[in-house]
Amino acid sequence: MTAEVISIPRAALHEQVAQRLRQMLVEGRIAPGAKLNERELSELLQVSRTPLREAIKMLAAEGLVELVPNRGAIAVSLTEEDVLNTFEVMAGLEGLSGELAAQRITDAELAEIQAMQFEMMAAYTRRDLSTYYGLNARIHRAINAAAKNPVLATVYEQVNARLQALRFRSNQDGEKWKNAVREHEKMIEALAARDGVAMREVLTAHLRNKRDVVLEQLRAAARAGGKAA
Protein backbone atom coordinates (compact mmCIF):
# COMPACT_ATOMS: atom_id res chain seq x y z
CA MET A 1 0.00 0.00 0.00
CA THR A 2 1.36 3.42 -0.92
CA ALA A 3 0.51 6.57 0.97
CA GLU A 4 -1.20 9.26 -1.04
CA VAL A 5 0.46 12.66 -0.82
CA ILE A 6 -2.14 15.28 -0.02
CA SER A 7 -1.09 18.84 -0.74
CA ILE A 8 -2.35 21.64 1.47
CA PRO A 9 -4.01 24.44 -0.51
CA ARG A 10 -2.17 27.77 -0.27
CA ALA A 11 -5.23 29.43 1.27
CA ALA A 12 -5.39 26.80 3.99
CA LEU A 13 -1.65 27.12 4.64
CA HIS A 14 -1.57 30.87 5.15
CA GLU A 15 -4.67 30.66 7.35
CA GLN A 16 -2.90 28.05 9.50
CA VAL A 17 0.16 30.28 9.71
CA ALA A 18 -2.04 33.25 10.66
CA GLN A 19 -3.61 31.21 13.47
CA ARG A 20 -0.20 30.26 14.89
CA LEU A 21 1.08 33.83 14.66
CA ARG A 22 -2.13 35.11 16.25
CA GLN A 23 -1.59 32.82 19.23
CA MET A 24 2.04 33.95 19.57
CA LEU A 25 0.94 37.61 19.56
CA VAL A 26 -1.92 37.05 21.99
CA GLU A 27 0.20 35.06 24.44
CA GLY A 28 3.05 37.56 24.33
CA ARG A 29 5.59 35.30 22.65
CA ILE A 30 5.89 38.18 20.19
CA ALA A 31 5.98 41.25 22.43
CA PRO A 32 3.99 44.44 21.71
CA GLY A 33 6.13 46.76 19.59
CA ALA A 34 8.41 43.94 18.40
CA LYS A 35 9.28 43.54 14.72
CA LEU A 36 8.12 40.32 13.07
CA ASN A 37 11.34 38.84 11.69
CA GLU A 38 10.32 36.98 8.51
CA ARG A 39 13.46 34.80 8.35
CA GLU A 40 13.14 33.64 11.97
CA LEU A 41 9.41 33.07 11.69
CA SER A 42 9.79 31.12 8.43
CA GLU A 43 12.24 28.80 10.16
CA LEU A 44 10.17 28.51 13.33
CA LEU A 45 6.91 27.79 11.51
CA GLN A 46 8.62 25.79 8.73
CA VAL A 47 6.93 27.66 5.89
CA SER A 48 8.17 29.77 3.02
CA ARG A 49 7.91 33.54 3.13
CA THR A 50 4.99 33.72 0.70
CA PRO A 51 2.31 32.19 2.99
CA LEU A 52 3.98 33.94 5.94
CA ARG A 53 3.56 37.34 4.28
CA GLU A 54 -0.06 36.52 3.38
CA ALA A 55 -0.69 35.58 7.02
CA ILE A 56 0.89 38.83 8.23
CA LYS A 57 -1.40 40.80 5.92
CA MET A 58 -4.39 39.01 7.47
CA LEU A 59 -3.22 39.97 10.97
CA ALA A 60 -2.65 43.55 9.84
CA ALA A 61 -6.26 43.67 8.62
CA GLU A 62 -7.34 42.40 12.05
CA GLY A 63 -5.34 45.10 13.82
CA LEU A 64 -2.88 42.77 15.54
CA VAL A 65 0.12 44.00 13.57
CA GLU A 66 0.98 47.25 11.86
CA LEU A 67 2.72 47.41 8.49
CA VAL A 68 5.28 50.22 8.74
CA PRO A 69 7.11 51.51 5.62
CA ASN A 70 10.82 50.57 5.64
CA ARG A 71 10.38 48.64 8.91
CA GLY A 72 8.05 45.79 8.02
CA ALA A 73 5.42 44.30 10.34
CA ILE A 74 5.33 45.44 13.97
CA ALA A 75 3.24 43.86 16.74
CA VAL A 76 0.69 46.46 17.77
CA SER A 77 1.32 48.24 21.06
CA LEU A 78 -1.67 50.17 22.41
CA THR A 79 -1.33 53.38 24.42
CA GLU A 80 -3.42 53.98 27.53
CA GLU A 81 -5.73 56.20 25.48
CA ASP A 82 -6.08 53.46 22.83
CA VAL A 83 -7.01 50.98 25.58
CA LEU A 84 -9.63 53.30 27.09
CA ASN A 85 -11.22 54.06 23.73
CA THR A 86 -11.23 50.46 22.52
CA PHE A 87 -12.60 48.99 25.75
CA GLU A 88 -15.30 51.66 25.77
CA VAL A 89 -16.51 50.52 22.35
CA MET A 90 -16.04 46.84 23.19
CA ALA A 91 -18.13 47.11 26.36
CA GLY A 92 -21.03 48.47 24.30
CA LEU A 93 -20.66 45.72 21.70
CA GLU A 94 -20.44 42.97 24.33
CA GLY A 95 -23.49 44.33 26.18
CA LEU A 96 -25.61 44.50 23.03
CA SER A 97 -24.36 41.10 21.89
CA GLY A 98 -25.29 39.51 25.23
CA GLU A 99 -28.73 41.10 25.36
CA LEU A 100 -29.61 39.97 21.84
CA ALA A 101 -28.15 36.50 22.44
CA ALA A 102 -30.35 36.04 25.53
CA GLN A 103 -33.38 36.85 23.40
CA ARG A 104 -32.46 34.76 20.36
CA ILE A 105 -30.29 31.82 21.48
CA THR A 106 -31.46 28.31 20.63
CA ASP A 107 -31.35 25.37 23.03
CA ALA A 108 -28.58 23.79 20.93
CA GLU A 109 -26.47 26.97 21.02
CA LEU A 110 -26.96 27.27 24.78
CA ALA A 111 -25.94 23.64 25.30
CA GLU A 112 -22.76 24.20 23.26
CA ILE A 113 -21.83 27.28 25.29
CA GLN A 114 -22.50 25.44 28.55
CA ALA A 115 -20.23 22.59 27.38
CA MET A 116 -17.45 25.04 26.55
CA GLN A 117 -17.92 26.67 29.95
CA PHE A 118 -17.46 23.25 31.60
CA GLU A 119 -14.21 22.70 29.63
CA MET A 120 -13.03 26.21 30.49
CA MET A 121 -13.58 25.62 34.19
CA ALA A 122 -11.52 22.43 33.93
CA ALA A 123 -8.70 24.45 32.33
CA TYR A 124 -8.99 27.02 35.12
CA THR A 125 -8.70 24.26 37.73
CA ARG A 126 -5.48 23.10 36.02
CA ARG A 127 -4.31 26.74 35.78
CA ASP A 128 -3.89 26.15 32.05
CA LEU A 129 -4.16 29.76 30.90
CA SER A 130 -3.60 29.08 27.19
CA THR A 131 -6.44 26.54 26.96
CA TYR A 132 -8.62 28.64 29.26
CA TYR A 133 -8.20 31.71 27.09
CA GLY A 134 -8.92 29.81 23.87
CA LEU A 135 -12.19 28.48 25.32
CA ASN A 136 -13.02 31.89 26.80
CA ALA A 137 -12.68 33.52 23.39
CA ARG A 138 -14.82 30.79 21.80
CA ILE A 139 -17.56 31.37 24.38
CA HIS A 140 -17.63 35.10 23.70
CA ARG A 141 -17.72 34.46 19.93
CA ALA A 142 -20.54 31.93 20.39
CA ILE A 143 -22.56 34.43 22.41
CA ASN A 144 -21.96 36.97 19.67
CA ALA A 145 -23.07 34.47 17.02
CA ALA A 146 -26.23 33.69 19.03
CA ALA A 147 -27.17 37.38 18.74
CA LYS A 148 -27.73 36.65 15.03
CA ASN A 149 -26.75 40.09 13.81
CA PRO A 150 -24.09 39.87 11.07
CA VAL A 151 -23.25 43.59 11.22
CA LEU A 152 -22.65 43.35 14.97
CA ALA A 153 -20.56 40.20 14.45
CA THR A 154 -18.28 41.91 11.91
CA VAL A 155 -17.69 45.01 14.03
CA TYR A 156 -17.21 42.86 17.14
CA GLU A 157 -14.43 40.81 15.52
CA GLN A 158 -12.66 43.92 14.24
CA VAL A 159 -12.62 45.66 17.61
CA ASN A 160 -11.95 42.54 19.68
CA ALA A 161 -8.85 41.68 17.63
CA ARG A 162 -7.09 44.74 19.03
CA LEU A 163 -7.72 43.60 22.61
CA GLN A 164 -6.94 39.88 22.47
CA ALA A 165 -3.40 40.09 23.84
CA LEU A 166 -4.48 42.45 26.63
CA ARG A 167 -7.44 40.25 27.58
CA PHE A 168 -5.13 37.23 27.75
CA ARG A 169 -2.63 38.98 30.05
CA SER A 170 -5.39 40.31 32.32
CA ASN A 171 -5.90 36.77 33.67
CA GLN A 172 -2.28 36.30 34.76
CA ASP A 173 -3.07 37.69 38.22
CA GLY A 174 -4.61 34.90 40.32
CA GLU A 175 -7.26 36.98 42.11
CA LYS A 176 -8.26 38.86 38.93
CA TRP A 177 -8.57 35.52 37.12
CA LYS A 178 -10.84 34.18 39.87
CA ASN A 179 -13.08 37.27 39.53
CA ALA A 180 -13.29 36.79 35.76
CA VAL A 181 -14.36 33.17 36.27
CA ARG A 182 -17.15 34.25 38.64
CA GLU A 183 -18.36 36.76 36.04
CA HIS A 184 -18.43 34.02 33.41
CA GLU A 185 -20.59 31.88 35.68
CA LYS A 186 -23.05 34.79 35.97
CA MET A 187 -23.09 35.13 32.16
CA ILE A 188 -24.06 31.51 31.67
CA GLU A 189 -26.79 31.80 34.33
CA ALA A 190 -28.25 34.92 32.68
CA LEU A 191 -28.06 33.33 29.24
CA ALA A 192 -29.82 30.17 30.45
CA ALA A 193 -32.54 32.33 32.04
CA ARG A 194 -32.92 34.25 28.74
CA ASP A 195 -32.46 37.42 30.78
CA GLY A 196 -31.28 40.07 28.33
CA VAL A 197 -30.99 42.85 30.90
CA ALA A 198 -28.83 40.74 33.20
CA MET A 199 -26.65 39.63 30.28
CA ARG A 200 -26.04 43.21 29.20
CA GLU A 201 -25.16 44.22 32.77
CA VAL A 202 -22.78 41.35 33.48
CA LEU A 203 -20.97 41.62 30.14
CA THR A 204 -20.59 45.39 30.43
CA ALA A 205 -19.25 45.02 33.97
CA HIS A 206 -16.94 42.21 32.80
CA LEU A 207 -15.39 44.50 30.18
CA ARG A 208 -15.04 47.39 32.62
CA ASN A 209 -13.20 45.12 35.03
CA LYS A 210 -10.96 43.83 32.24
CA ARG A 211 -10.20 47.43 31.26
CA ASP A 212 -9.22 48.33 34.82
CA VAL A 213 -6.91 45.33 35.13
CA VAL A 214 -5.27 46.10 31.79
CA LEU A 215 -4.73 49.76 32.71
CA GLU A 216 -3.24 48.71 36.05
CA GLN A 217 -0.82 46.39 34.24
CA LEU A 218 0.16 49.04 31.66
CA ARG A 219 0.83 51.61 34.39
CA ALA A 220 2.85 49.11 36.43
CA ALA A 221 4.95 48.28 33.35
CA ALA A 222 5.48 51.98 32.66
CA ARG A 223 6.62 52.57 36.26
CA ALA A 224 8.97 49.60 36.07
CA GLY A 225 10.38 50.88 32.78
CA GLY A 226 10.92 54.32 34.28
CA LYS A 227 12.84 52.88 37.22
CA ALA A 228 14.96 50.72 34.91
CA ALA A 229 15.89 53.80 32.88
Mean pLDDT: 85
Q: Can you write the helix and strand succession as a string?
A: HHHEEHHHHHH
Strand order in space, largest sheet: 1-2
Instruction: Give me the Rg, rounded.
Output: 19 Å
Main sheet specs: 2 strands, antiparallel
How many DSSP-defined strands? 2
Low-confidence parts lasting 5 or more residues at pLDDT below 50?
A: 1-8
Query: Number of helix segments?
Result: 9
Overall spatial form:
globular
- Proportion of helical residues: over 70%
Tell me the distance between the termini.
65 Å
Beta-strand content estimate: under 5%
| SSE class | mainly alpha
Helices and strands, with pairings:
Blueprint: H1 10-26, H2 38-45, H3 49-62, E1 65-68, E2 72-75, H4 80-104, H5 107-125, H6 129-146, H7 150-169, H8 174-192, H9 196-228
Antiparallel strand pairs: 1-2
Task: Describe the protein's architecture and organization.
The chain has about 230 residues and is mainly alpha-helical. About 75% of the residues lie in helices and about 5% in strands. It has 9 helices and 2 strands; from the N terminus they run αααββαααααα. The protein has helices at about 10-25, 40-45, 50-60, 80-105, 105-125, 130-145, 150-170, 175-190, 195-229; strands at about 65-70, 70-75. It has a two-stranded antiparallel ribbon. A hairpin with a 3-residue loop joins strand 1 and strand 2. Helix 5 packs antiparallel against helix 6. Mean pLDDT is about 85; it is low at about 1-10.
